[in-house]
Amino acid sequence: MLAQILFCGLAAAGALLLCWCLAAALLFPDRDTVAVVPASGDGAGLEQAARRRAWLRGAGLAEGRFVILDLGLNERGRELARRLCGDDDTMECLKEAELPGIWKMER
Description:
Elements: H1 2-27, E1 34-41, H2 46-58, E2 65-73, H3 75-85, E3 91-95
Parallel strand pairs: 1-2, 2-3
């Protein structure tokens, strides 16, 4: 009886691990992604987006570029974007006209 309970527990743990791995493979982005976050006005939501990206990078789930797309940021919003980008070379703030340039990959 104890062996059956132990076997069922291990089987359930294995099934849970398999489901977790499948969900991670389907839901988390590829490692080389470009995340484009549109921003306007005072940049509401930029800090939260940057924190989510930092969490994904810290967990090793996303290593791509993070682009803040300026769709009419005011001075306060541009200052926030500059502060968030800081000296992180994987983060940048672009105007809408500059967006097509990130899709061209240099080899």
